[in-house]
Write a structure and sequence with these properties.
The protein is an alpha+beta fold and about 170 residues long. The protein contains six helices and six strands. The N and C termini lie far apart (about 35 Å). The structure holds adenosine-5'-triphosphate and magnesium ion. The site of magnesium ion (MG) has 4 residues, from helix 1.
Length: about 170
């Protein structure tokens, strides 16, 4: 693929248990660009994101991140490349504290991530206040902050947010 796009999804067919939900999806995200997917409930928006992270089965087509072909790459490998994902639901570890959730986001890092942790707390002040509280005791929006903060712990090149306005 001869492109400078950060993310490129080309002609992707993917879905669950042999049924294709996506049928020939194309999408590109360039550096510095913000791309929004809009569609009715059940249209397949989340499936686009899940296809990138190996949570839906890609039967045909290709997904590239920078110069890497990441089609069907294991999701921990995708994260190591700097592409992170905030799921729509079940996006925190409820029994872990807020801070432990954020630290889980840094599990692929081998360097000191304390500055990044402070950065996340400055973006989401309510999380600092509740850092010792179990994430399962937070409100829906606060959990979304934890999930976003966790994804930001690797300082990603590209962040994929499923229903960020929630
Ligand atoms: N794990 C799954 N197994 C089987 N079918 C699924 C699975 N997840 C989603 N689907 C189906 O795939 C289709 C698209 O779902 P998807 O979650 O991608 O929609 P969406 O556009 O994100 O909707 P919403 O706006 O409600 O979040 C739906 O028909 C749904 O029933
Ligand atoms: Mg969805």
């Amino acid at each position: 693929m001869t492109t400078t796009s950060l993310l490129e999804i080309r002609n992707v067919y993917s879905g669950y248990r042999g049924v294709d939900i996506l049928q020939g999806v194309n999408l590109t995200v360039d550096k510095g660009e913000m791309v929004v997917i809009i569609g009715p409930n059940g249209a397949g928006k989340s499936t686009v994101l899940k296809s990138i992270f190996g949570l839906a089965t890609v039967r045909q087509g290709e997904i590239h991140f920078g110069d890497r072909n990441i089609t069907r790459l294991r999701n921990d490998r995708v994260v190591r490349l700097g592409l992170c994902y905030v799921p729509q639901t079940e996006n925190v570890f409820p029994s872990l504290t807020v801070q432990e959730n954020l630290e889980m986001g840094a599990y692929v890092r081998t360097d000191d991530y304390s500055a990044q942790l402070e950065k996340v707390y400055s973006l989401f002040p309510p999380l600092k206040e509740k850092r010792k509280q179990a994430a399962g005791t937070l409100s829906g929006g606060q959990r979304q902050m934890v999930a976003m903060g966790r994804a930001l712990m690797v300082d990603p090149k590209l962040l994929l947010l499923d229903e960020p306005t929630a």
